[in-house]
Amino acid sequence: MPQPGSHKYDIKRTRLRDEYDEVVPDEHADRAANAELQRDNPARPLGDPDRAAGPTGTRGTSRGDPDIDDPARPRSTPLELRSAAFNDHTLLPERYSRQAGNHSPPLEWRGVPDATAELVLTCTDPDAPNGTFTHWLVTGIPPESTGVGEDEAPPGTLGRNDFGELGWGGPQPPVGDQAHRYFFNLYAVDRPLGLGEGVRAEDVRAALDDDRVLAKGTLVGLFGR
């Protein structure tokens, strides 16, 4: 059985999803495919540092995501980031995709360090054809916040995604691609970044130097068409 987070695991998940599409209603196909894989790969507990740190084995494959490609970046303390809508390294439900409602997913987190001045939330697709694509960007989230509900604007300042819009822009990978990975990253920083509405991903990356990041949490969803 391929390991969760591996390329072979994602390929098998997509194949199972296609097989279940042929025999069960579409709204149950994601659940059936995920259940079969999770029987062989039980979910790790929320507090597991390896789980919070994201997948392994992706270094050098992200086509531009500095958090994946640069092995010299020091690791910060992991935040615990999860969603009631999907588990780490499972398929994102169709309703969160751009073509099926473009609903933003619910998220919750804990373990924010006491010294945090603000939280920063991003969602990126490192498997996009032209390099890392930003789907969600929010800065200035109050450190006392613990999450965001479905279709709710996070309590912060909305940045501009790579569709050119403020707020959430759902997955829309090329038809026929293997399932893309969507990295939801939450950063706790020790000083206000002072970034305004409409800020772009490159500006946030420039502001998030290693000395400012106290903790980081990662949750990965998969989606293919």
From the structure above, extract its key features.
225 residues; alpha+beta; Phosphatidylethanolamine-binding Protein; 21% helix; globular; Phosphatidylethanolamine-binding protein; PEBP-like_sf; PEBP
- Mind telling me the C-alpha Rg? 17 Å
The CATH architecture designation is Alpha-Beta Complex
> Which blocks of ≥5 consecutive residues have pLDDT under 50?
43-64, 68-75
Order of helices and strands: HHHHEEEEEEEEEHE
Major sheet size, sense and barrel closure: 7 strands, mixed
Number of domains: 1
Shape: globular
Strand percent estimate: 15-25%
Q: Based on helices, strands and strand pairing, what is the structural class?
A: alpha+beta
Write the layout of secondary structure elements.
Layout: H1 7-23, H2 26-40, H3 49-52, H4 66-69, E1 77-78, E2 80-82, E3 90-91, E4 107-110, E5 118-125, E6 133-141, E7 147-148, E8 157-158, E9 180-189, H5 201-207, E10 213-223
Helix pairs in contact: 1-2
Family: Belongs to the UPF0098 family.
Biased composition (Basic and acidic residues): 7-18, 25-51, 62-73
Protein name: Phosphatidylethanolamine-binding protein
How does this structure look, described?
By secondary structure, the protein is of the alpha+beta class. It has a single domain (7-223), classed as Phosphatidylethanolamine-binding Protein (Alpha-Beta Complex). 21% of the residues lie in helices and 24% in strands. The strands form 2 sheets. Strands 1, 3, 5, 6, 8, 9 and 10 form a 7-stranded mixed beta sheet that branches. A hairpin with a 7-residue loop joins strand 5 and strand 6. Helix 1 (7-23) packs across helix 2 (26-40). The longest helix is centred in the N-terminal third of the chain and has 17 residues, at 7-23.
